[in-house]
Amino acid sequence: MKFLxxxxxxxxxxxxxxxxxxxxxxSGATMILDQMDEWAVxxxxxxxxxxxxxxxxxALGPERAEEALRTALAMGIDRAVHLVAExxxxxxxxxxxxxxxxxxEAPALVFTGGQQADWDAQALGPALAEALGWxxxxxxxxxxxxxxxxxKAKHDLDEGAEVVRVALPAVFTSQQGLNxxxxxxxxxxxxxxxxxxxxxxxxxxxxVEILEQSIxxxxxxNKLIDGKDPVAAAHELVRLLHEEAKVI
Amino acid sequence: xILVVLEHDGARLRKGALEAISRARQLAMGPIAxxxxxxxxxxxAQEAAQYVPVVYAAEVGPYTAEKWAEAAYAAVEKSGAxxxxxxxxxxxxxxxxxxxxxxxxGLLEDTLESRAEGEQILATxxxxxxxxxxxxxxxxxxxxxxxxxxxxxxxPAGSGAVEPLEVRLPTGVEVLERLGxxxxxxxxxxxxxxxxxxxxxxxxEAFAGVEELARTLGAAVGATRAVxxxxxxxxxxxxxxxxxxxxxxxxxxxxxxxxxQHQAGMNKSRYVVAVNKDAEAPxxxxxxxxxxxxxxxxxxALIEAAKKLKD
Lengths: 248, 311
Prior knowledge:
In chain A, 30% of the residues lie in helices and 33% in strands. Chain A is an alpha/beta fold. Chain B is of the alpha/beta class.
């Protein structure tokens, strides 16, 4: 069977973000494989380890996104496809472009991150499923194949969770609790350099345009009360919330 | 024509549905139709008809993203809508993506505010783990989701008609088992006050105090990732990057350190309160009010003080 992970490269959540000309400037940021995509990559590797076959990782993004693909290869994915495109592309258009590669690869399933840590979009996985005409299971915490035609999966809803049986091929998106991603080992990193990474330049017209980005740090009051006398501190806090902030 | 997809709990419209109606009215792009999808839709559609002139009821059974997308698309075709508005719950952020793809629409996800300008819709939203605010623009057709708690709920506007909507049910996903209860009323993402407990509470039992404070303040209970990972609280209460994003008037963080993953879920709250014994904890940097002290002593005192205020 063939298993495919779709990944993105994003800034580390701890990195400092700067705005330059009304746009987020990532030149000084540490870029990483999105943590939610890491879970997707790990799950694809585990499925391959259990059921055999091949694993493929695909990214749509600028040249530097190659680093994220190399990370996935170093973790153990067999080969990579990189659709090279600069700038912001909305998830619906991303799905359209990625669907072509996925259709050509014809995997048993696609795994991707539940939410993108840069654009905060959750739409890519389900939009990709729609583009392929496949079912989608979002926020997956557990997956088990039932032969080659079905999978049983557990996934989160707004309230609670549910267990579903889904016909393959299907798209799954990751969620915390799915697995514990492995670290790339040094031999893994060395091996990744020799693995196939195919580059395909693409152009796309984004359906959504970003006009301006800004960082408005909310000024916080930072009023600290010493809690050595807990009763007095609690009363003072409740007074402030009631009289000053007027929120209780 | 604008179509509003109205979320409900099987008996009543959710607050997010009323907020979505307000968003649709704000766009002022002509008449509004509504659609109620799921189970027991007739009763909910009757309630919805107080707000919108035409409500379609699509009885499709338990939630799957495929069924919701199919039903919403059927309502789009029937109404001729070129704009679809829904609340930005996690479930709707799944099926709206399918719908947007099918409509070849621009998807404006999790928006804070939105307005029409001719054949275009402009919206603002947060990105980069809630650290950046961005303005976006898309040409019609557009599918738009509204972040909970960003728009006042709509007021009733008369009495509309309810029409059943036939939907061809897609196959592919079969629901085997539901785990955890469907919460009625105000959900964590919709709550005006949230009280969150962190790992510093030390045990699952210590959440009894968190619950009591939440009850006293009419608040929802939240939890950090470490707490959920430890199995002290259900995942549905997790606030953070991989949990829920909340934006209440008041966010009380008890024994929460304030990791980036947690901040991504709450840093836009109007007022943030932190209780932590470590004065250097990152949560204090983003707090309006804080008590530096032992949560096991401060929390009972807070419950007492809050009760006294409410009496």
